[in-house]
Structure formats: structure tokens, C-alpha cells
Amino acid sequence: MSILGYILITIGAFFYFLGGLGIFRMPDVYNRLQAGTKATTLGSFSVILGVGLVNLDYLPKALIIIAFIALTNPVGSSVLARAAYLKGIKPTDKTKVDEYKGGDEK
Amino acid sequence: MTIINYIFFGFVGLGVLFSFLRILLGPTSADRVAALDTLNVVLTGTIVFLALVFKNGLYLDIALVYGLLSFTETVVISRYLEGKK
């Protein structure tokens, strides 16, 4: 059980690195939100579940923190994307479809 | 299992470095808030891992409170950036 926990912690740390790299090199606010939020959500699940599996006394609080992050992280990303759109920040030229406006044209 | 600590803090240090560079040189303020959100989630996971390093269960409570405050911060700054209609 302890070996499985350490493997999960290593995978989660790698996903943290991928989230930071994605938020550095993506060209746009919306792409950066997608890369950063998805990678760090999966990394948090893996790291916190790994800590709970290594030391079984920590498991109930770890599950509570996992549920809390699963609820709040997409909500924060969605609110930030909506705020950036309403503020008038344009997507890059490679973005073809604007679903928020409801049409096929950009 | 002390080699796991070096691997974990190496990856987390690289992620924090890239996020912090994006906070410093982001073109708009929405970029900075997005990078700050990512940085907060990474630091929450790191505080949970510190409970295993220092063998102290109190760090889990600190991680829970830090996650709550970071979520509130993201939502409040986003509502502020949105402006009034």
C-alpha cells in the first residue's frame, strides 16, 4: 500500500510540472486556463490520495480535501474565463469558433 | 524513501518557477490571475505532502484553509475584473 502511495505522489508531481509548463507556453488566456486547471486538478487528486494511502490515519481528511478541490477548481476556472471574455480579451487568430456568442463565425 | 522528496520538490519547483514567470510577464491581468490560481493549487498539494515529510497531521487542516482562501481570492478577483455593466 505504501509503494502504491509513493508511485501516485510521483505521478502527481509530474502533473504539477506539466501544469506549470502549460501555463507558461500556451499562447492565450483560455488555453492557459485549460492547461493549468486540468493538469493541476489531476495532480492534486493523485498527490493527496497518495499521501492518504501512505499514512492511513490521514485518509479521511485527504478525501475531504479531494472533494473540496474537485468542487472549487473548475468553478474558479469557469468564473475567470467568463470574466476574461466579458472584459473583452480576444482569443488568438487560430481560434475559429466562438461558442459563447452562439455562431460559427469568430 | 527520501529520494521521493527530491523528485517531488524538483518537479514542484519547476512548476512554481514557470507559473511565477507567467505572473511576472503576463500581458493582461487575467493571465496573472490564471497563473496565480495554478500556483495556489500546486502549493495546496505541497502542504499536504509536507504532512508526510514532517509526520504531523496538522498540515492537512492548513491545506484545507489555504484551499478555501485561494478559491475565494480567485472568485473575488474575477468578479472585480468583470467590471460593471
Automatic annotation (TrEMBL), chain A:
Ranges in a coiled coil: none
A molecular-function term among this protein's GO annotations: sodium:proton antiporter activity
A Pfam family this chain is assigned to: PhaG_MnhG_YufB
Membrane as UniProt keyword: yes
Superkingdom of origin organism: Bacteria
Name under which the protein is recorded: Multicomponent Na+:H+ antiporter subunit G
Transmembrane region(s): 6-24, 36-56, 62-85
PANTHER family reported for this sequence: ANTIPORTER SUBUNIT MNHG2-RELATED
Alphabetical UniProt keywords: Membrane, Transmembrane, Transmembrane helix
Keyword Heme: no
Record-linked InterPro entries: PhaG_MnhG_YufB
UniProtKB/TrEMBL annotation, chain B:
Ion transport is among the record's keywords: no
GO MF annotation list: sodium:proton antiporter activity
Stored InterPro entries: MrpF/PhaF-like
Membrane topology summary: Multi-pass membrane protein
A Pfam cross-reference name: MrpF_PhaF
Principal localisation: membrane
Span of the signal peptide: none
A cellular component term, taken from the record's GO annotations: plasma membrane
Keyword ATP-binding in annotation: no
Entry keywords, A to Z: Cell membrane, Membrane, Transmembrane, Transmembrane helix, Transport
Transmembrane segments: 6-25, 34-54, 60-81
Places the protein is found: Cell membrane
Family membership noted in the UniProt record: Belongs to the CPA3 antiporters (TC 2.A.63) subunit F family.
Name the UniProt record assigns to this protein: Multicomponent Na+:H+ antiporter subunit F
